[in-house]
Amino acid sequence: MKKGDFIVIGTILLAACIGFGILFWMGRQQAGTVRIFKDGKEAGVYSLDKDQEIQVDGGENVVVIENGKVRMQSASCPDQICVKQGEIGKKGESIICLPNEVVVSVEEGEESGVDAVTN
Length: 119
Hints:
single chain; alpha+beta; mini-chromosome maintenance (MCM) complex, domain 2; 4-stranded antiparallel beta sheet; 3-stranded antiparallel beta sheet; 2 helices; elongated; membrane; NusG domain II-containing protein; transmembrane; NusG_2_sf
């Protein structure tokens, strides 16, 4: 092997390391932020990084943050649609409890991607 061969191999390895570094840096997810509103007023801002249970309006609604996702664990409303909705965790997703006027919205974090395709 000659000196030129080592330079070519070194350049290829350096380019591969830089490429993997860029992919790793771009692949990291930003910690999401959840905002909870009650009666149109902000009741709190929480991070999706920290697992916790939040009681809204004295326990009328219970919101749980686990593993980077948020869900409505329980609600005092009769239809329970907000509880049945399940988990959310991507930017722009919301859980809404109309009878109790509670909105849980993911404000920052992973992008939700494409919701529709048109021709």
